[in-house]
Amino acid sequence: MNNFINPNLPTGEVEGAWQKTVKHLSNLTSEKKNKFEIIIVGCGLSGSSAAATLAEEGFKIKLITYHDSPRRAHSVSAQGGINAARSLSGEKNKVVIDQLFKDTVLGGDFRAREVSCQRLSELSSSIIDQCVSQGVPFAREYDGTLATRRFGGAVVSRTFYARGQTGQQLLYGAYQALSRQVNLGNIELITKRDVLDLVIVNNIARGVIARNLINGNLETHKAHCVVLATGGYSNVYYLSTNSLKSNATAIWRAHKRGANFANPSFTQIHPTCIPPGGIYQSKLTLMSESLRNDGRIWLPKKIDSKDDPENIPEHERDYFLERQYPKYGNLVPRDVASRRAREICEKGFGIGFGGKGVYLDLQDSIKKDGLEVIKAKYGNLLEMYERIVGEDPTKVPMKIYPAPHYTMGGLWVDYNLMSNIDGLFVLGEANYSVHGANRLGANALLQCLCDGYFISPKTITSWLANNKEIDNRSIDEACKEALNYVDKKIKALLKIKGEKPVDYFHRALGEIMISKCGISRNRNDLKSALEEVEILSNNFYSNLKIPETNSGLNVELEKALRLEDFIELSILMIKDAIEREESCGAHFREEYQTKEGEAKRNDELFSHIAIWKFNSDNNSHIRFSEDLNFKKINLNTRNYK
Amino acid sequence: MKDFISIKFKVWRQISNDSNGSYEEFSLEKVSVKISLLEALDQLNEELISKDIRPITFDHDCREGICGSCGFLVNGQPHGPKKGTTTCQLYMRNFKDNALIILEPWRAKSFPIIQDLSVDRNALDKLIISGGYFSTETGNAPDANLIPISPKKAFSSFETATCIGCGACVAGCKNASSSLFVAAKLAHLGQLPQGINDKKERSKKMRKQMTIEGFGQCSNNLECEAVCPKEISADWISWMNKS
């Protein structure tokens, strides 16, 4: 294999490129579609929406998930909303599409493909139509039309929402659509399975190895192509806003089998999470950043203040975001908000456990709009905060702090969402596509549904139409090889019989990664992080303890298998962060900043997607790149001042 | 209030649905009042692993009250003593020092035990699969603003759509009925103009499936409403029965 990869980008005008591409994609009759089986791994927004759509068109789908029900996937936790470029009058459509396109490219700091961002923006409106027709109860205006709100990083109001539970409602929409297909016999729902390897036959993805989490048996599942929709890998950091079981195993195993990994170090830190309370803290809860619309962020002007916030007079408060960014104020992009909070806390102004927290204060909005209005807007978020912290946020300012939240990096895919392995499609947070170096708020749900409802059904159909002659000769051999590999891996972990449980190592990995490859990075820290992770890895393989369970069910083994891959992925994340000698979006290298402390891009050397290829012969990685070109929009520097 | 407390756990232990179960007791010291009950169980499990005792199996994932994975009886109550709260959102500050906490799985014919506190809630999915959706095709949806929906109606529909499918309503009911779960789905869809046409058919299918899955008749005790972490009103059951 050489390092040439073809992103299959459309030529010509950026606008309307997707519509032109679709015209040239091949199709199949529904009778023919019936003869193809597709494995979809993951049942979040992108996996569920792809499963429902492909099944509707006639394909036979096997949907595999480690959950007991598709309704539990981590997309359910998304609070804020979904962006869509919609205008009530037709002629304004281009204006709003251009605006969302521009914000997506700028939000990503010019590190995503322009044509993909354009497609996202053009398709966004039909997603709202799709969801409403499924019964998603979006918020409404008094005249009965759909309501919108402003969201972090945006000056326009284009975010559609269902209170603070937009992800839940969108996921249930997709879950119900797929349930209908299960009823019609077009989808086989295979739950409680961890996918542990990919089966490749003659360079085409043809199946997966899964472990039944109830009885511990290993299984092979075969199909004509494979879709990975397995989400992101923020749990590398141990403490993140992700659900506890969210993991990188399926994409990492695909990577080890030859799928290239793009920009692994691009991870987003969310500025508004509830800070940790102690060492057994298992996750960090996100408070939707829509709260930044009505909450003012501040810290006491006095260092190491122990005063109750209600008793700190106005002139002793520093509204640091409003002070530094008069135009955007508390609505600056996520990375800027996170970095400013970390900086000021490291100087000793932070509040709460370990001095890692800032106040988000709703008082002024309550005074202006009234308590009822604020409660109606954020109801469940405020209740959630009170349950966790034990304080009423309408009386006492909330404490918040940045936490790992989303990973822009993922498996490299071409314009058709196919990886460099033929027949391996990657959707949603698992791929690297439109978000560049930083994802715009309310674009995650949008991307998942774009990938699942509109893009992949077209491109997968076309790929299958052009690859009808599927060679089944060596599939059993390939399955056997992968199955043996996984079996050995499991036995090796069980044989260690050390002293420490999985979480001990995971917490240690998280600490290294958050302090040295998190909100802010520099060469020296990254180099030492590399050494520390190597040491941790050795300890893991010599001192891990997995209990005997006398039944197939073994939760500690599940966790160990995930951590093993997180450790390997961490090393690649650090290497990628070292190699990218510039600051862009959420990747902030301290060596590369302006006098004002802003990210300083280096477009001459780094206007590209970093692509990492795994070489199994010598167990090493090579980095190469895909250049990014901008035709519709000029490369310029973000300015939120 | 102390920052750290001691807790005595009495936990139902059962290897699988086919084996017999029994209670086991464990004490746990130095439990921070700032952590959640599930985090206290993590802490206990780490201790058990170090002593070569099989850790306690329980379901969980998002740990922020929205995925619906977690859920067992805490001192006899589904999701524990706090109103409108999932198990994962139950914090140790809600318990006294030296308290005894009894943990048992959901008990219902339709929810076979997987292990310890974990049960199989597949029957709830089967209810949705039987008809809990609109018959829309993907890809050809009409303009979303074509049919206006009043904010009141949209919100009322949303409130029933917030059901997280945890199964507490079934566990709380003496007949192990899934009436509130089904009523919530029927009310979510049936209140929207898109759902008017197949409203009757949907109701018929889902209610038939309740019997097939072995759920009992509504007990009219309103326990389902009392234990629902999303506080969905049992009035929707009457709404379902009338419509």
Automatic annotation (TrEMBL), chain A:
Catalytic positions are R334
Q: What is this protein called?
A: succinate dehydrogenase
> Lineage of this protein's species?
Bacteria, Bacillati, Cyanobacteriota, Cyanophyceae, Synechococcales
Catalysis performed (reactions): a quinone + succinate = fumarate + a quinol
**Which cofactors go with this protein?**
FAD
One GO MF term, please?
A: electron transfer activity
Q: What are the GO BP annotations of this UniProt entry? A: anaerobic respiration
The UniProt keyword set, sorted, is: Cell membrane, Electron transport, FAD, Flavoprotein, Membrane, Oxidoreductase, Transport
Q: How does it sit in the membrane?
A: Peripheral membrane protein
From TrEMBL, chain B:
Domain of life, source organism: Bacteria
Q: Does the keyword Nucleotide-binding apply?
A: no
Q: How is the cofactor bound, in the record's words?
A: Binds 1 [3Fe-4S] cluster.
- Which EC number(s) does the record attach to this protein? 1.3.5.1
The signal peptide here is none
**What residues does the 2Fe-2S ferredoxin-type domain cover?**
13-106
A biological process term (GO) from this entry: tricarboxylic acid cycle
Please state every residue range assigned to the domain named 4Fe-4S ferredoxin-type: 154-183
Q: Which family does it belong to?
A: Belongs to the succinate dehydrogenase/fumarate reductase iron-sulfur protein family.
Protein name according to UniProt:
Fumarate reductase iron-sulfur subunit
Organism of derivation: Prochlorococcus marinus str. MIT 9302
